[in-house]
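User: Fold both of these, please.

Assistant: Here is the first one.
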Amino acid sequence: MRYEIRVDGHLSETLAGAFPELGHVVMAGQTVLFGPVVDEAQLYGLLARCQSLGLRVVEMRQLPE
């Protein structure tokens, strides 16, 4: 499964480095993290990482294969 997680603001390269398994792009005041997610445990881990870094998740969605 592939997911897209949009967070508020522009992530620095250092902060984006906290998500080495995901690609990222900055657009329209948001940072979009995207990439493959193996299972729900990994997805919840990514969301927990966002929370622990103080990031505000604006949207999360599964992408078509």
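And the second sequence with its predicted structure:
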Amino acid sequence: MSETIHNRIAMLRAERGVSRRALAEALGVHYQTIGYLERGEYSPSLHLALRVAEYFEVPVEVVFSVRPFPRLGSTTGEPA
């Protein structure tokens, strides 16, 4: 069983023009932590996951998932 937590942080940041550093400062974490999260090298605590979702004003399941997200524009539902 994979322990990887998939996320859409990079996509959300790109959509909103937010740098890793700006997001990190808003969340009170080191900017490298955002990179680790985006690459799936670090699984966030529940508290951090909720704060990321709150920052982007979306439900936590929009940002994080235990399964890969489907590709944008995919109609087949195939994982990315």
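The mean pLDDT is 89.
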